[in-house]
C-alpha cells in the first residue's frame, strides 16, 4: 500500500507513516487486497485527503468504515460512486439537508463536491473486506485517523466537526472545543433516524452560520 496523499497532509502526518503500527497496518492491508476483494479501490483509500486539502479544510464529517457492497465505496465517508444507488443513511442526510436548507435531494450520492469545498469525509477505518462490515477495524486505522483528528484540532482553527452516532461522539476527546465547533446528534441510519435522533438537528445550517461568523465561505450542500 503506497501512502500517496496530498502534500498538504504529508507535512502534517509524515511521522506517522514510519511508526511500527502503520507499517504493520500497511502489511495487513496489502495482504487483504491480494487475497480478498476489498473496498475502496487501492487508488481511493486516501481519497478523503486528496479531495480535501489540509489548507482548505473547514468541516470534518466522521464515518466508521467504508461501504462493503460491490463498487459502493469511493474513499469518502457516506459517499458512493455516481452510478450506485444512494444508501439509506445518505438518503436521510439528504432529507435533513432538504428540510434544513430547502435544497432538492441530488440525483446521486457522490459527495466529491462537498470534499472539494473543504469537507473532510473521513472514515475511522479506511478499508474493508467485501461484504464483511468492520472486517478491517482494530488493525491500526483508528490510531491513524485519531491522529488525523487531533492534528486538525491542534493545527487548525474554526473547524466544524460533525459527529453522528455513538462511535463518532467518542472522538470529542480529541478536539479542542475552545478552537472549534463540535455538533453531535444521532446517526442518520434508519434505525436511529426513525427513532427521532437525527431529523431536525439542523447541522447543515448551523455549520454554515458558524463558517460565516468566522468570515469563511459556507458549504454548498
Q: Could you state the order of secondary-structure elements as H and E?
A: HHEHEHHEEHEHEHH
Indicate the CATH topology: Uracil-DNA Glycosylase, subunit E
Q: Which outline best applies?
A: globular
Major sheet: order of its strands?
3-2-5-6
| Percent strand | 5-15%
Number of strands: 6
- How many H/I helical runs? 9
Distance between the termini: 33 Å
Number of domains: 1
Structural class of the helix and strand makeup?
alpha/beta
Computed Rg: 17 Å
User: CATH top level?
Assistant: Alpha Beta
The CATH superfamily bears the name: Uracil-DNA glycosylase-like domain
Instruction: Give the fraction of residues assigned to helices.
Output: 25-40%
Instruction: Catalogue the unreliable spans.
Output: none
Mean of the pLDDT scores? 95
Per CATH, the architecture is 3-Layer(aba) Sandwich
Largest sheet: 4 strands, parallel
InterPro entries: UDG_fam1, Ura-DNA_Glyclase_AS, Uracil-DNA_glycosylase-like, Uracil-DNA_glycosylase-like_sf
Function: Excises uracil residues from the DNA which can arise as a result of misincorporation of dUMP residues by DNA polymerase or due to deamination of cytosine.
Organism: Mesonia phycicola
Catalytic activity: Hydrolyzes single-stranded DNA or mismatched double-stranded DNA and polynucleotides, releasing free uracil
Amino acid at each position: 500500500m503506497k501512502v500517496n496523499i496530498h502534500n498538504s497532509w504529508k507535512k502534517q502526518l509524515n511521522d506517522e507513516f514510519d511508526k511500527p503500527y502503520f507499517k504493520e497496518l500497511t502489511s495487513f492491508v496489502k495482504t487483504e487486497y491480494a487475497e480478498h476483494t476489498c473496498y475502496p479501490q487501492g487508488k481511493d483509500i486516501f481519497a478523503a485527503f486528496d479531495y480535501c486539502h489540509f489548507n482548505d479544510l473547514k468541516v470534518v464529517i466522521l464515518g466508521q468504515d467504508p461501504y462493503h457492497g460491490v463498487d459502493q465505496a469511493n474513499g469518502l465517508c457516506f459517499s458512493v460512486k455516481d452510478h450506485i444507488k444512494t444508501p439509506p443513511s445518505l438518503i436521510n442526510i439528504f432529507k435533513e439537508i432538504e428540510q434544513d436548507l430547502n435544497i432538492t435531494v441530488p440525483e446521486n450520492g457522490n459527495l466529491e463536491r462537498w470534499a472539494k469545498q473543504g469537507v473532510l469525509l473521513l472514515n475511522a477505518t479506511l478499508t474493508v473486506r467485501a461484504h464483511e462490515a468492520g472486517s478491517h477495524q482494530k488493525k491500526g486505522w483508528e490510531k491513524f485517523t485519531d491522529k488525523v483528528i487531533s492534528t486538525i484540532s491542534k493545527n487548525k482553527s474554526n473547524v466544524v466537526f460533525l459527529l453522528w452516532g455513538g462511535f463518532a461522539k467518542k472522538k470529542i476527546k480529541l478536539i479542542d472545543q475552545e478552537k472549534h465547533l463540535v455538533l453531535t446528534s444521532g446517526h442518520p441510519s434508519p434505525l436511529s433516524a426513525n427513532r427521532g435522533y437525527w431529523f431536525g438537528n439542523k447541522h447543515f445550517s448551523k455549520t454554515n452560520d458558524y463558517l460565516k461568523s468566522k468570515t469563511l465561505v459556507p458549504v454548498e450542500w
